[in-house]
Design a protein that fits this description.
Layout (H helix, E strand, L loop, with lengths): L1 E4 L20 E4 L8 H5 L4 E4 L6 H5 L6 E4 L9 H6 L3 E3 L6 H17 L1 H9 L23 E5 L3 H12 L3 E5 L11 E3 L2 H7 L2 E4 L13 H6 L4 E5 L8 H9 L3 E6 L19 E3 L8 H19 L16
Parallel strand pairs: 1-2, 1-3, 3-4, 4-5, 6-7, 6-9, 7-8, 9-10, 10-11, 11-12
Helix pairs in contact: 4-6
């Protein structure tokens, strides 16, 4: 088995080990691969392991030896699934590896807006507190989450974990989800998207990016939100219309936007959200705790082992003709 890892650098910057993969075949590792180099590097591969490298129909068509594509992520939009299916290429992904880490990051963002911890640490370093008459000092609003309403768009693994944490903070939780009410936790109410936007103090996006969700948070939907609501996006940058969102923030329509993702990554310096003071953007790191990356590596290896031994892993996106 000739295994080529085309862009393993983001998963493993050096603190994990690829060594166990060597027992499955000959492994060639590249930290990053430019699109112009994909065919040259992948031409003899039986199996490819990718993260953000694009496996288009044109690329797949030019790789007749290819039998397997392992995506090092939950999303598999980097692969033309129809083309893979047509060529008999098995595609696997990594579901649910980052649930705890992304949910944690969601509340790290929310609590930063509510408590402004980084700001007050900076204030203390400048000895501003030392110059105060009173025992305490604050110069920004401080927000308590108890009894605030959180609207969660998408109740998959991460959305459900976010709901659990919100409930632990004493928040009221509503959700826009395909799950019926009787499949939801007792304290989570299913509502329409319009109801969610109109009612929620905090809206948190945890849905996939597809044709129906692309730019779902646009000028029209942002207008439906409560004035001074907080919008969180730990899912995909393309879920929001960034120009409309920047305008809403600048006009005081929303209190804050917190995101770990943008529509283009890395972003252009001209991205309108980067210049807005109440847009809090982190560089797509919510998934990247060592614990989550270790789980990702373990599942990816398990997927590959299952393919090599002609059995299912349960994470196949395309049909699988091997054994059970």
């Amino acid at each position: 088995m000739n295994i080529v890892i085309l862009d393993g650098g983001s998963l493993n910057p050096g603190d994990l080990s690829w060594e166990p993969w060597n027992r499955l075949g000959k492994v060639t590792l590249y930290d990053y691969t430019e699109s112009a180099d994909v065919l040259t590097r992948a031409c003899d591969a039986d199996a490819l392991v990718i993260n953000k490298v694009q496996m288009t129909a044109e690329v797949i068509d030019k790789l007749p030896k290819l039998k397997y594509i392992g995506v090092l992520a939950t999303g598999y939009n980097v692969v033309d699934i129809a083309a893979a299916q047509a060529h008999g290429v098995v595609v696997t992904n990594i579901p649910a590896y980052s649930t705890e880490s992304v949910a944690q990051a969601t509340f790290a963002h929310l609590l930063q807006v509510c408590n402004n911890v980084a700001h007050y640490v900076s204030v203390e370093k400048k000895q501003e507190w030392c110059r105060q008459r009173d025992f305490c000092y604050w110069d920004t609003p401080l927000i308590e989450l108890k009894d605030k309403k959180m609207g969660i768009v998408g109740l998959g693994n991460i959305g459900m974990k976010v709901a659990q944490i919100a409930l632990a903070f004493g928040m009221r939780v509503v959700a826009f989800t395909s799950k019926p009410q009787d499949k939801l936790p007792a304290n989570v109410k299913a509502v329409s998207l319009d109801e969610l936007l109109q009612q929620s103090d905090v809206v948190s996006l945890h849905c996939p990016l597809n044709e129906s969700t692309c730019r779902m948070m646009n000028g029209k939907s942002l207008e439906k939100m409560k004035r001074n609501a907080i919008l969180l996006n730990m899912s995909r940058g393309g879920l929001v219309d960034e120009d409309a969102l920047a305008e809403a923030l600048q006009n005081g329509r929303l209190y804050a936007y917190c995101a770990d993702v943008l529509s283009e990554e890395p972003p252009r310096t001209t991205n309108p959200l980067l210049a807005v003071p109440n847009a809090y953007i982190t560089p797509h790191l919510a998934w990247a705790t060592k614990e989550a990356r270790t789980r990702l590596m373990d599942i990816a290896l398990s997927n590959m082992e299952a393919f090599v031994h002609n059995r299912r892993s349960g994470n196949e996106i395309t049909s699988f003709s091997g054994g059970n």
